[in-house]
Structure formats: C-alpha cells, structure tokens
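Worked example 2:
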Amino acid sequence: MKRLALIFLLASVSAAGGVRADEVPTLKAGDTTYGQHLLNGLKAERNWVIGLEIEGVRPSDRSARVLASTLRPAGAPADHPGVTGLSRSAGRATVELPQFDASRRKVGTLKVVLAAAPGDKDAALMAKAVALRDRLARRISNLPNLMEPDSFDGVTHADTYMQHLIDVTFERHPNLVLAVAHVNSPDGKKNVILGSTIGRWGKPGDADDRRVYETGRTNLEVNSTGDRIEIEEELKNAAGETIGALGLVFPYRQDQDVTPYQKAAIDIQDEIGRRLLSAKNAFDPYPYDRAYSEHTVAQALVEKTLKANPGLRVLAMHVTKPGVTKPGEKDNIILASNIGRIGKLADADDLAIISTRQDKPEMNENGTMFEVAMVLHDEAGRDIGVLGTVYRYRDGDDKAARIAQSHRIRDALARQIPSAAALFKAP
C-alpha cells in the first residue's frame, strides 16, 4: 500500500459531510431542493410508488413542515409529525416511517404511498417501504442537506459520467457512508463537486479540497459528532494525472484503527481512476446516448479483456452498425469502453483507420499515455470497426512492444466476435 501523507483534523467541516450556512446558495424561484430531487428520482424509478413525502422540523424556524414531496407543495405544515404505521384505502397503502440519514440519525418522517392490491400483505408492503427508506437514507448527509439546492451553481447537475461512476462505486461498497468527487474543469478555471451521494453539485472546492489536489496530501478528518471519518485523496485519471479530489466517508468510533479504510480508499480511487480518461471525460453527459446501453456482449468483452491485461488502461470498441458496408460518421459508434461515451459517433480519425486499414499509434498531448488504434475484425476476418487501446507512457517505454500487445488483444477479441451484430446483443 502506498504511503499516505495524512492531516488529522478533528471536528472540522468535512469536504464531503458538512456545509457552512454561508456556503449554501439562496434558493430562487424554480430551484429544486436536494430533497425534492431525491424523491422525484425514486418515484420515477418505481412504477409502484404513487407518492413520497418527507416531513421534518425545518431548522430555520423549528416548525414541523413538509420538506420535500411529490404529493403537495414543500413548506406546508406537517400532517402527523412523528407518526408511523400503515393504512390502506382502495388500491393503495400509505406507510409512514422514521427517515434517517446516512449515519442512521433521524431527520424526519417518510410517507410512502404505494399501489396495493387486495391480496397484498401488510408485511410485504411495509418491507417495500422500508427498503426504499433505507435506500434514501444512504443519500442524505443530515437534515439541512435535504433543503440545499440540488445544484449550487445552477449549471452542474446529476447527469454526468462522474456521477455515474460515483453511483456505481457506492453500490459496490456498502460500507461507504458518503462519496464526493471534486473535479477540475477542463479549462482549469474551477473545481466543483461533480459526483456525489449527497447532492451539492457545482459546489466549489474549499481550502481542504485544494490542498489535496494541489499538494497531493491526503486529508483524514473526523466529523464533529465523532461517528464519521473522511479520507480525501487525489482523484486521478487512467494516466495517473491528478484531476481533482475524492472524498470517501466511512463509519467511525473513537480510537478505531483506520488502516483498513485507508487501503479501501486507495483501492476505490484506483477503480474510479481506471474509468476516467481526463477531466473532460468526467464532465461528459451520462448516458451519452440513450439509444445505446452498456449491457451488451461488446461491453462484457471489454471488461474481460481489461481484467486479463492489467497494463491496459483504456479499451474502446468503435463498431460499425450491422448492415453498413461503407460507414460514415453516423454509422460507427463507441459501443463499449471503460471510459463511458457509449453511443459517441465516429470522428474523422476513426473513419480514416477503417478506410485505410492502417494502425494509428500516437501520444496524448501530455505525453503520459500511448494509444494504438487499429481496425477491429470479427472471427471471419471482416472489418467491423476500430479498436482503441491506451497505455500509460514513461520516457523510454517500448512503443513497438505496446503495438504488438495491442495486435494480440485485437486478435484475441476477434476470435470471440461472430459478427458486428452479435456485439450489440445482451450478454
């Protein structure tokens, strides 16, 4: 495990866990609160949910209010503050439960109105509501978090590739309490929260965040209540270049050995970094094109190949759509990759490789990565697109050896591809 330069800050304002009142933008007409964003998303994902509502004590005036709701306007007086239970009416059930934050601290009451058939048992309906409540809790830092704007700058929202990577990471590591990625903008003029499990998209990085990505020093912070510890480290791309800071929060008790968390943080950064080509890549939209999915034979092959070739940092399949004999820019797309961009149309360089059938080896602009792009074949030797392979590069590395490795990877893939059409199918 690499050595961490640690700064231990007790009772500090954590980059991922707390926001001072003067840092929260004033909500304007038409703004969406983070709590409302959460409820809107949960309802849209589940056709059995008729409505959702969170009631709680509003910190500004200590009154019991609707904090967020898909049933009525936020700000209305609470109906039954603190009441829990299940009731039924024609075709629906209403479950009221204590709502917790990510550290199991109560923030209010959740009302779940869900579709219910006569034969549905109360216990089963209650279990569905509890599962939804617990999923929601993992996305709440604390009570004030629910009333923050979902976008601090009005521009950055939860529709980026970086947010997708944070979501995938959060599901893969259930011991994480919170995860926040601060990413430098492609023009280098700002650093904002781009991926987060607690909202705050567009919030500028603070002094602690800047220290991490400017000096490479890792912050280790315990929050003021002593139940969370954050490890904030450099966020790096596939080339090992720093593009921001990654804050990972774990549950904590006094005098706990945090060495396992430090190792986990390094491993998680490596997982995420291998999926990022650059800061610009982090800002890409996600999904890139809703007409295409990651659940394909092509993506399964990419993942298998990356696992078998640890030195391979990026792998992308640009595949010509089935039935096309002379592909143009709209006929060839990125069908699978470890850097997102699924559905991205071919550019002139991709089409030139297809038409000339010539490899294109080149360095990136920073001289840190070496790419070999070449024609991709199926098992019958038919040209079906372009395969891009990218490696880290240091002065003196053997480029010819990388080109030969890329050819071996391409040929191994070809033996597993019956046709271009097969790559578009579900695995």
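The mean pLDDT is 93. Residues 122-137 form the longest helix (16 residues).
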